[in-house]
What does this fold into?
Amino acid sequence: MKFFSYDSKFTQLMLKLCYACYLNLLWFVCSLPIVTIGASTTALYYVCFKIVRDEEHHVGRLFFRAFRENFRQATQLWLIMLGMGIFLGADMYIVWHLRASAVGAAAVLWTLLLAFLIAVSVMYVIVLTYLFPLLASVENTNRAMLKNSFLIGTHYLFATILVFAVHFAMFFLVVRVFTPLIVFGEGLCALISAWLMNNIMISVSGEPDEDEA
It folds into this structure.
């Protein structure tokens, strides 16, 4: 039947869902040491961009090749982001409790500081959203990767919001609606995000960066 032929839209959709499950498993296993989350996420997005562009061949082989090739830089960037995230989280926890117990001028001061930390956290999320997809697409220094992730994320703000919404929706569905959806998890999120980011990454990868070493 034409409906079940390899080139049909239904078959291609099912194939991509199978890829999402497989990639989710690879990503989860390779992220278990925690310090390797950056490398595994970079590899995940590298393969997802290939799938979106219909260039996928030997998905597992592509994943592990990208994992090895980007391991050093991805791990460095992940440890930087992890340290910043822990620092921000600790600061927000402390300031939140200080604000709750303060009165008068002190309460206003802690409220302003909390608002500042929330703004910094939004910037942090924007950088984290684009950092590893960008690393999977172009070569550059760590400093340029961090800077360009923020610039791209703010320039293409609508895409940034959609990518965040995809991850939030998956988290909500797994936690509150249907837990078995976790088999798709980050694999499906990355695949949808790669589709949303594809034209952006094609655009930026063709432009030289002034900070490039």
User: Anything to note?
Assistant: Helices lie at 9-31, 37-52, 59-69, 71-101, 105-135, 142-155, 157-177, 185-205. The radius of gyration is 19 Å. Residues 130 and 203 are 14 Å apart (CA to CA). The chain is about 80% helix and 0% strand.
